[in-house]
C-alpha cells in the first residue's frame, strides 16, 4: 500500500487563505487504511475548516482515487457542489490528488497529505517501507528487499558498518543483510547465494516517469 | 608495478598510513605531513570523504603526494558517484599516475556533515571491484572496449570485528572472487579477532593489511565506539582507558598500538599494517619509534 501522512495544518492554512468554499475528496483504499483519507479524516478536516469560517460545499470518498475514469464517474453526481467550491482538497496519496487535477484543471487542487512510501502495516497505523518500486524484483534471491531495507541498497551482502547485527545508519534496526542471511540460511541457500554476484543493477528500470501498458 | 604491490608480493611487511585530505583549499599542512611520512612508511592512503564528511577529493590529494615522490593509495567509495563518475575518475587517476586503489561502499551520509545529501550507491563495493577488474582488462563496466587499459593494484576492505562474522567472511570471499588483490581491515584493538579472521583468510592466497588506530584521548575512544560505522571498542579497553588519567591516555594509546603491531609481526599474522592516526604525524613517529622499525 501507499503510505500517507496528514500535512501540518499550518502548511494547509497557507494554501487555503484566499478561499472560502471547499469540496473534499477522500480515498477508500490506502489512505483510508492510513487514516488520512477515511470518513473520519474528512469530517475532522470539515470541522476544522468550519471552525475557521470556511464553507464545505460537499465531500465524497472515491473508491480508488488513482483510478481516473472510475473516480470521474463517481464525481459526476457532485458536479454542483464542486462547481460551487473555489478549491478541492484531496485526502489521498499524490496519485489520487493528480487524478483530481486531471479532471478539474481549472480549479485549485490541494493535497492534504504527504505521500511517504510503499509499505506494509505492522500494527494499526504503524508502517514500514518495503518496496522502492525499482522495477526489478530480487525477492526470490534475497528474501527481503535489500534495495529498500538497506540504506546503501547493497545487493551482495552487508557492508562493514553493521554492529551487533544492527544497521550503521539506524542502530535500532536490524541490518537488512543479516535478516536476509538468516532467511537464506533457513532455506539452505547461503552457499548458492554467494556463488554469484547480483548486479550491476539496471536502475534505468526506475527512471521516472514510468509508463506501463499491458499488451 | 606499484611499490606497494612489489613489497606485498615479495613478502615484505608493509606499513601504510591514512591521511584525510583537508577541508578547504589550504594544502600546506598536508604537504608538510606527507614530506615527513614519506621517509617512514611505504604508502599513504587518502580517504574519500570519510564518514560522509565533505573534504578535498582523494584523487587530488593522491596527485599532490605523487608530485612529492610519495606513493599514494586512492580510496574510492560508491557513496557520491554513479558508475559513470567512478569510471571517469578512475581513468583520470590512472592518467595522473595513481596505481593503488582501495575500494569500498562508503559510510552513509547520515553520519557526516551533509546529512541531507542524496546518497548515490549506484553500485556496491563488489561491483566496484568487478568494474576495476574490467578497466584493468581494457573494458568499461558494460564491456565496451577502452582506448588503453588501466594497471591498478586494487584492494578491498573487511571488518574482522563484525558481529555476526560469517556474513562478513562471505563478503570477503566474494570480494576475492571479484579480483581484490589485497585487503585492508577495519581498525582492530586486539589480536584475538584478527587471528580468528586470519584463520579463515589464510586459506586463500591474498594479502591482508591490519588497520591500527592510535587512541589519543578518552573522547576519541568514545567517538570511535559510538560514531564510526563498524567500529566496536572492546569493553576491557574502555574500562582500562577510563581508569587512566587524561594525560596518560596518549602514551598508553601508542603503547597499545605498538604492542599490537609487534604481536602481529611476531606471529606473522598478516602482511602489513595500516596506521589510522587521523593525520597526526607525531603519533605515527612515536608509534614507529616504539616498534623500532623504519626509523
TrEMBL record, chain A:
Domain Methylene-tetrahydrofolate reductase C-terminal-like: 111-204
InterPro entries to which the protein is assigned, alphabetical: DUF5981
Domain of life: Bacteria
Name assigned to this protein: Methylenetetrahydrofolate reductase C-terminal domain-containing protein
Taxonomic source organism: Thermodesulfovibrio autotrophicus
TrEMBL record, chain B:
Pathway: One-carbon metabolism; tetrahydrofolate interconversion; Amino-acid biosynthesis; L-methionine biosynthesis via de novo pathway
Record-linked CDD domains: MTHFR
Molecular function as annotated in GO: FAD binding; methylenetetrahydrofolate reductase (NADH) activity
GO cellular component: cytosol
InterPro entries with a match to the protein in the record: FAD-linked_oxidoreductase-like, Mehydrof_redctse-like
GO biological process: methionine biosynthetic process; tetrahydrofolate interconversion
Pfam family, one: MTHFR
Catalysed reactions listed for this entry: (6S)-5-methyl-5,6,7,8-tetrahydrofolate + NAD(+) = (6R)-5,10-methylene-5,6,7,8-tetrahydrofolate + NADH + H(+)
Annotated family: Belongs to the methylenetetrahydrofolate reductase family.
Protein name: Methylenetetrahydrofolate reductase
Amino acid at each position: 500500500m501507499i503510505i500517507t501522512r496528514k500535512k501540518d495544518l499550518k502548511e494547509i492554512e497557507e494554501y487555503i487563505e484566499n478561499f472560502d468554499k471547499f469540496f473534499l475528496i477522500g480515498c477508500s483504499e490506502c489512505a483510508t487504511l492510513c487514516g488520512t483519507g477515511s470518513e473520519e479524516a474528512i469530517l475532522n478536516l470539515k470541522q476544522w475548516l468550519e471552525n475557521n469560517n470556511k464553507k464545505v460545499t460537499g465531500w465524497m470518498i472515491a473508491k480508488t482515487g488513482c483510478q481516473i475514469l472510475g473516480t470521474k464517474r463517481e464525481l459526476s453526481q457532485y458536479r454542483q457542489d464542486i462547481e460551487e467550491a473555489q478549491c478541492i482538497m484531496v485526502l489521498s496519496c499524490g496519485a489520487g490528488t493528480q487524478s483530481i487535477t486531471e479532471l478539474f484543471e481549472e480549479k485549485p487542487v490541494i493535497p492534504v497529505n504527504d505521500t511517504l512510501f510503499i509499505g506494509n502495516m505492522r500494527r494499526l497505523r504503524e508502517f514500514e517501507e518495503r518496496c522502492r518500486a525499482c522495477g526489478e524484483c530480487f525477492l526470490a534471491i534475497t528474501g527481503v528487499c535489500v534495495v529498500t531495507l538497506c540504506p546503501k541498497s547493497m545487493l551482495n551482502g552487508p557492508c562493514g558498518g553493521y554492529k551487533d547485527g544492527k544497521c550503521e545508519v539506524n542502530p535500532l534496526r536490524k541490518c537488512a543483510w543479516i535478516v536476509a542471511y538468516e532467511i537464506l540460511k533457513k532455506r539452505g541457500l547461503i552457499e548458492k547465494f554467494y556463488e554469484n554476484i547480483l548486479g550491476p543493477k539496471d536502475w534505468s528500470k526506475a527512471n521516472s516517469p514510468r509508463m506501463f501498458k499491458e499488451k | 608495478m606499484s611499490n606497494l604491490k612489489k613489497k606485498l608480493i615479495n613478502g615484505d611487511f608493509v606499513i601504510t598510513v591514512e591521511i584525510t585530505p583537508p577541508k578547504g583549499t589550504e594544502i600546506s599542512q598536508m604537504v608538510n605531513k606527507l614530506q615527513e611520512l614519506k621517509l617512514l612508511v611505504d604508502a599513504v592512503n587518502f580517504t574519500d570523504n570519510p564518514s560522509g564528511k565533505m573534504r578535498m577529493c582523494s584523487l587530488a590529494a593522491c596527485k599532490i603526494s605523487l608530485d612529492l615522490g610519495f606513493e599514494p593509495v586512492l580510496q574510492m567509495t560508491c557513496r557520491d558517484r554513479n558508475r559513470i563518475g567512478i569510471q571517469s575518475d578512475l581513468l583520470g587517476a590512472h592518467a595522473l599516475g595513481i596505481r593503488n586503489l582501495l575500494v569500498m561502499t562508503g559510510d552513509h551520509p547520515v553520519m557526516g556533515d551533509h546529512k541531507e545529501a542524496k546518497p548515490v550507491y549506484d553500485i556496491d563495493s563488489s561491483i566496484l571491484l568487478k568494474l576495476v577488474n574490467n578497466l584493468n582488462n581494457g573494458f568499461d563496466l558494460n564491456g565496451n572496449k577502452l582506448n588503453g587499459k588501466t594497471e591498478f593494484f586494487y584492494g578491498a576492505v573487511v571488518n574482522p570485528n563484525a558481529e555476526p562474522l560469517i556474513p562478513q567472511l562471505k563478503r570477503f570471499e566474494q570480494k576475492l572472487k571479484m579480483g581484490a588483490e589485497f585487503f585492508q581491515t577495519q581498525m582492530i584493538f586486539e589480536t584475538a579477532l584478527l587471528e580468528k579472521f586470519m584463520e579463515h583468510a589464510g586459506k586463500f592466497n591474498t594479502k591482508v593489511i591490519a588497520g591500527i588506530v592510535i587512541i589519543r584521548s578518552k573522547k576519541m575512544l568514545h567517538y570511535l565506539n559510538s560514531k564510526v560505522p563498524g567500529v566496536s571498542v572492546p569493553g576491557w579497553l574502555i574500562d582500562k582507558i577510563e581508569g587512566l588519567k587524561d594525560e596518560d591516555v596518549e602514551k598508553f594509546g601508542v603503547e597499545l598500538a605498538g604492542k599490537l603491531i609487534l604481536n602481529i609481526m611476531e606471529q606473522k599474522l598478516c602482511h602489513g599494517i595500516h596506521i589510522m592516526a587521523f593525520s597526526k604525524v607525531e603519533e605515527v613517529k612515536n608509534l614507529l619509534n616504539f616498534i623500532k622499525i623504519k626509523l
